[in-house]
Amino acid sequence: MSEVRHVLVLPDRDAAEEAAEALGERFGLVEEPQLKRDALAGEDDAEDVQWLLVVEDAEEQLDPRELDEFAAEWDGWREEP
Q: Nearest-5° angle of CA 20, CA 10, CA 57?
C-alpha cells in the first residue's frame, strides 16, 4: 500500500490552526493533520512564512478536489504531489 499525503499551504498560523481543526471535523480524520512552518526560500522576514498542513491519507479516501476547495476557504491551496 502506498502512503498518500496531501499538503495544504496556508497563509498564516491562525488560518492553519483553524483549518486543521475544521479539516478533522469535515472529513472525519482519524489522525490529526501535522502543522509545519515553511519559511519562503530566500526570505528573512518572519512575515513571509507559510504554514503547511500535512494530511496522511493511507486509505486514499480524501478527494483532492474537495481538499482544494477546503484550502481555498482559508486563502490557501493544495500542493500537487
A: 50
Distance in angstroms (rounded) separating the CA atoms of residues 80 and 65: 11
Structure-block grid coordinates of residue 15: 488560518
Whole-model pTM: value is 0.84
Q: Are 41 and 50 in contact (CB under 8 A)?
A: no
Q: How high is the pLDDT of residue 45?
A: 54
Rounded Cα gap, residues 35 and 53, in angstroms: 5
Distances (CA, A) of 67 to 22, 42, 48, 52, 58: 12, 28, 24, 13, 15
State how far the Cα of 24 lies from the Cα of 27, in Å rounded to an integer.
Answer: 6
